[in-house]
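> @MW can you paste both from yesterday?
MW: sure, first one:
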Amino acid sequence: MDITLAGCVPPPLLSLLLLLFFIFFLIVDLRGSTIVFFVATGSQI
């Protein structure tokens, strides 16, 4: 709920974009293509 992160974007719109991105990432993850990417990225951190 930090408005400073939104900048010029309204908080409801920002939350909607984050929700859509999360759903998109979840759908791709269900396909099994992001699992390898997540493991490869997580190992570097």
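MW: second:
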Amino acid sequence: MLELDAIKSRFFANISHEFRTPLTLILAPLKKAQEEAPASEAEQYFESSDAEISLPARHLGMMRRNAERLGQLIDQLLDLSKLESGNMKLHVAKGDIVSFLRAMVFSFESLAERRQIHFQTEFPERGEEAYFDRDKLEKILINLLSNAFKYTPERGRVAVKTSLENGRLKIRVEDSGPGISKDDLDKIFERFYRVEGTEDQGTGIGLSLVKELVELHRGQISVDSAKGRGTVFKISLPLAREYFSEGEIIGEQTRNTPLPAPPLFFEPGFSETSPSENGNSPAGQPLLLVVEDNPDLRRYIAERMQAHYRVIVAENGLRGFEMALEYTPDLVFSDVMMPEMDGFQLCEKLKTDERTSHIPVILLTAKAGQQHKLEGLETGADAYLTKPFDEAELLLRARKLIEQRSQLREKFAAQPALKPTSVTLPSTDQRFLDKVAAAIEENMGNEFFSVEDLAAAVHFSRSQLHRKLKALTGKSPTDLIREFRLCRAKDLLEQKAGNVSEIALEVSYSSLSYFTRSFKAAFGVPPSEV
């Protein structure tokens, strides 16, 4: 039986991946087409009888609504599979339950306005800190409210009442829909059961999922209904810490191989060229590496990004790692499920290799569960997005991560020399800078110590060392060697460890005049005045 559950769980996970990739390729172009439509058709996403909205616009809206609905059904199927196999766990954190409820319920106000449904809400007057699983409670509320609005006719009524009583959250969702017969009422929470005689038969997943999520959260749910008088769902959930095990509490709620093909650059006009042929790349723009085995999705992401960045692509994790070593991109987008080397393995390899450890990684995956998200973050991923992803969020995440890396470089650029402890870095980058500093320190008196010697000392090629140091500090290896030596000279002068000529020789400056010019350029005063 356990083996059968495991097989079913794997089956649903694999089906999810197969569904989510084509769904991304449906939703993303649809959203783009809607954004580019005339402002007069801004309501195209919603059902409308407005004759001024063009037929293509209405078709776009219909396609997007149904594609998004398909995504919701995939999520529900996966959730049921996880519940059945015992793989769905609570992730409870302390947060303001009242603010959360308000935000979730108020998100249905625009739907109520469009449907001309009287939407009544009631919340506790003050915020209240409580322990709850944000994801599970969100799914419970969305399913119940979606169900209420679906069966309530225009100009009908939907009411949501929430209260806090004796350490428990009480939720009451009431609608003025057609109601449920007594025969159906006894089976309403069974999996895949659908009430006969309704215009929208549904899938029979939503209420079954709600009941199992409520019980997973140590709560109870009941329903009261009759034909012709609407339906009322009542939920009671415990909010105290003692109801949950230590393993369920996670902290505070927050809101926030074949021969490789040559890399491709995507430029305006969607042309594909190799790096050597690419003469029209936006000079100085960050370089992005997209690693995705699906060629359509790989090209789509590249096309969306090429308006803002230079882009190269790889078809699997193994080729992606090779290209990261060769080109040292500013950011990597990677799918998770890929041949040769998956996204988790690629991310871990990038983050543990000193040549690439500084590169931010965004994982793109069809695996929507919290477990997979945590697995991705544990490998060092800087962000984790689930397919079908939102293009605006993808661009925003990319921009923010590149900005953060740029700010780190600016902090280094403001420092006179290598001082690894003065800026917090991931441990791999910290160790790398320690090695660089140690190599320069060891050769402080060697005026013939070159960039090639430094690269050999830290086991990098010259080009890899240059790209790595520029990415981390904004400075070239030559700049860092010079600044390190000048900083040591300043320390020695302040300690009166010798005269200017002696100290110049100690830090590998055989020309006193050149040492004086370099010192004054770095610190604003000649060495004789220190």
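> thanks! DSSP finds 18 helices and 15 strands in the chain.
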